[in-house]
Amino acid sequence: MTGTAFRLRLAARGVDGITLLVLPALLALVALFVYPFAFGLAVSLAPKAGRFYANYQTFFADPFLRETIWNTLKLALPTTLLTLLIAVPVAFRVRLMRRQRWLTTILLLPMTLGTVLVAQGLLTYLGPRGWFNRGLMLLHLTAHPIVLTNNYWGVFASLLLTGFPFTFLLTLSYVSGIDPALEHAAATLGGGARARFMRIFLPLLAPGLAVTFCLSFVQAFAVFPSAVLLGAPAGSTHVISIAAYQAAFERYDYSLGSAIAMIMGAVQLVIVVAVLASRSLFYRGPVGGTKG
Fold first, then answer.
1. What's the rounded Cα separation, in Å, for the pair 103 and 84?
2. Nearest Cα to 62, choosing from 283, 275, 260, 204?
3. Beta pairing partners, 271
């Protein structure tokens, strides 16, 4: 078979030079995601003692370890929902502003600081002698400092602060992509602000908001520095990432640590699939209408 005939046969099957450009990305996907996942799964199924599922049995049999799933969900789900609820109106307002770049840059600053620096700052700001408590006592809103660090609320505030820029940036890109002519047409037909949002923007934004929720949730579910610095790592903020770290690097049981990481990934996958699947329940219909 000549080279030309072989190329023609590949082209008939949809494989050509442009298709081969996918190969580098495919190799990167295998090297960075598929192989680490397969390796971690194999390690988790090779416990120090017992059957191949002994690590998973250990995790679910231990209430202290099992509770980490709930502790993490208690942090990740509310912060993700709240950041999304805040990001949507802010994005709608920012898209109409002339100096959008400046405000966007300011809102993105917490993302550039890093979680550790934000946690250190919140330790000082929200501490018993921090500016927040001093302000409340100065205004006679409270007689004693409110405990906002080394507990659930400290981690909650940190996740909210560091997660908002990411959520806002994604939401702004979706909101800015909707053609303003649709809103203008609805307004000329007598549609109020609520009707325009519910009947035009929300259906168009639903797929993007679902993806934004998933990405923000995955980011929040992997909380670690904030849970250690601002939370109670042995108590209410004993999240699943801390359990994996302690198993792998304090007890030197890499197999159990990998099993906990696998469980962590499975929980995230369940939430993500549930959210993406619920899009069709929320709205069914065309979602075209973006610019271009």
1. 18
2. 260
3. none
